[in-house]
Amino acid sequence: MWDRYWHGFGIHRLRLAALRVAVFGVLAYDLWINFITHAPRYGAGGVNATQFAWLDALAPIPTPGIVGAGWLLAGFLAARAALGIAVKASVVGAALIYVGIYTWNQADSYQHHYLICLLLIVLAAIPGDAWRAMAPAVAGDGPPADVSRTSGDARHWSLRMIYVSIAIMYVWTGIAKANAVWLSGDTLYQLTASPENRAMMQGISTALGLEGTQVYVLAAWAVMLGEIAAGLFFVWRRLWIIGLLVVPWFHVGVEVIGFEIELFSYYMIALDVILLLPRRIYEAADRGLDAVRAKLQRLAGPRAEAPGLRIALGLVAAGGAAMGAAWTPYVGAIGLTVAVALFSLAAFVRPGGLPLWRALGHLAVGALLATSALATDAPFDYYRLWAGDLKKRAASEPALMAEAIATYRAANRVTTGPARHFALGKLLLREGKTDEALSTFAEGIARHEAALAEAKTAVYREPTHAERRFDLAERHAALASRFKDLEGVMRQVGRGAEAAEAAKKRAAHFRDGTDALKEASALDRVNSRWGVIRRTLSSAQP
Amino acid sequence: MKNVAIVAFLALQIGLPLSYYLSDTPYDERFAWRMFSPIRLIKCDVTLFDATGGGKRPLRDLAEMHVVWRNLMERGRLPVVDAFARQWCAEAPDRALTVDLTCGPPDGRLVGICRRGPGDRDRDGVPDGYADPFVCPGDDLAACFKAECGDRSAQACYTERCVVRLIPGDRDLCQGVR
Questions:
Q1: Which chain A residues touch B134 with a CB distance below 8 Å?
Q2: A348-367 confidence digits (pLDDT tens)
Q3: CB contact under 8 A, A181 and B109
């Protein structure tokens, strides 16, 4: 019974391939876009608490450079695994880095980071053979693509463990909710406090003919019982289909109420759907993919390869991927570049598979890594959060002031939009660098005005789009606030005329922002942005 | 060997959350899968004191600490308090550190006196938290208050039921981490 349950368990190889693409694709994105912005909190102020007390005495204080480079490298390995390149080595590498950093520090304490740790440990235990799926030749050194369908399911105890681990998690989440506080509905009431959510819950309540807070009590019981049942759905194959129809909705619901838990819902929706889909779907897809496989095989070039060709492709791949890493504007980029080059070269050491595909894959991952830094706000968030912490600590440690200024400069450099010029300018003023501070304030205002011009254009294009109107109100509010700051600064440095000019502009933006907010509210009366913009405007009121 | 790995991994996944329910530290919910837990809504009051030489001076360090660590302390995460103590106490050999760390009780959301404190802004003779339908579903707020607090004053009831001290205020944290 035990042996059959654990060691006789198999899943369609295409299911495992889908899992690989989804989990590691989302993980790469998560590490490159979300995690990296948290790196500066690691080791801040010389404080560190590991996940286990016995480790505290052994572990050194982490640094943003090491943690950031580690996450970017783990993302590189995850993206490579998603593409089916050197899967086993990539999964093990990503797992070691992710679990290692998680264990090193409690700073990222969302429970889903722990879930990803457990999943990565299980996924790292899957043998290399099992990963070869819809295009096994592409995956490295497996059998030809055309035998995958007849080679049977992927079988290993770790595949069963994926299901069991998720089941255990769901059951515990249900048990955690089996208490009077949750079942009273109060927690759900608090979590759905935004006007949109309250309106939605009221609508459900009316539709069901419920009174008062009954809808929250009902929802609380449904979630608790549903989560415990979800565990059952995962451990018994015959119930997968019921699970598919029920379980993903928990996570869809969490996204609908807008609860901020990073990408957890996306991980879970992907896991639920991929793991619980009926086998027939994968069999049909497998048949449909035969033609794609043949085409991929032709495009990817011959399997036979000369050692010289493999080495040349390896050097090109390593060079390209390393270039992508070198473009990232984070501390630790040099170490990251070297590590990416070495990991890339290692994928070409052994013959077999399709080296051209592997080379193209590495170039693509390198390009994606660079894009994640150059085309998103992640570097700006990384530096602005870091600078904010340094500024705060510089109040009692003046030696940190220079570092705070340099970090704010970096934050302003990595984005073209409104940034942290005012925060930087105030630090420069404190250091007696008045001219540089004033030019920094001017640059800050210029960026805000450029953003305002864009918001106006967007409203002109879509005059009935509420979000565009809220954007416009937000930009005016931001400028009113900046001009208020500027007014104070100008008075401080004895420039009365400039201060009066700033006061006029502050009043104008306050007026325009108030009007824009009214127009936006007329289009969408329950938008959660209203309160934030209103507060910004109020704080800048002339 | 494979079966040993399976059993060990299962034991880990069952044992870690179980240890939460068996322990007396309800505020540290790591590994316990308590998503959307009401404990996440509790904000503890934390003040650190430099008690070197027998005095008791509030530390500025808490305000200047990274917001992540401060937030974790305000959620009653004791290992973070220890981590801070390790770092702060190591700066000089004779330092002493105490902490005033108090939190609401885990079930405080459903206890009227804990929900909004002992205050009575609407002057109806009953602390304001009882006006919430999740706490006192009926109309007789005074009865709900009496059921929870008996004949005690609102302040006395609040102090007794709603203030959980996680670390004794006179314990020198430097003693534990040196």
A1: 184-186, 189, 213
A2: 988 766 788 889 999 999 99
A3: yes
